[in-house]
Amino acid sequence: MSVYLFDTDTCVFRLRRMFGIDRRINQVRRRNRFVSEITIAELRFGAERCSQRREQMLLVDAMYDEFTVLPITPAIHTFAAEKARLWNVGQKIADFDLLIGATAVYHGLILVTNNTRHFERMQSLQLENWMQEL
Of 29, 57, 103, 107, which sees the most CB atoms within 10 A? Predict the structure, then answer.
């Protein structure tokens, strides 16, 4: 069975119950579902800006029961090497996205994202776009 790291955009679709993503995620065993702590930070930022702040925060907090949250620290070397490589070829990626991608590479996870065009510049990163499959 495949093991996945879910990008922030996919988690937003899940929280908004869009495109049946929640059903697809629930088909993956709990032990094979991961998110980066960067994704949690981005989701909390979105919740802070929301008019239903309290409700959104509860939804984000519930993700700790549904996913394993991975720290970025183990992937720092992967991040630095990939950022340097991308800079050298003139293909920059935003740091948060690069940290999420580096976390997937470090742990050997498939990154599920709707932003494959952006992430496909990274070496050794396995991608799936479940939005294209809907």
Answer: 103
| Residue 124 neighbours by CB under 8 Å, 6+ apart | 105
Q: Encoding tokens for residue 8?
A: 């922030």
pTM, entire model: 0.94
Amino acid at position 55, single letter: E
Q: Which helix (H) or strand (E) holds 126?
A: strand 126-128
Q: What CATH number corresponds to the domain at position 121?
A: 3.40.50.1010
Estimate to the nearest angstrom the gap between the alpha carbon of 64 and the chain centroid: 14
> Is 133 within a domain?
no
Q: How far apart are CA 72 and CA 68, in angstroms?
A: 13
Give the bridge partners for 126, in sequence order. Answer: 110
Measured CA to CA, the distance from residue 125 to residue 112 in angstroms comes to 11
Q: What is the pLDDT of residues 14-62, one digit of tens each?
A: 998 888 898 999 999 999 999 999 999 999 999 999 899 999 999 999 9
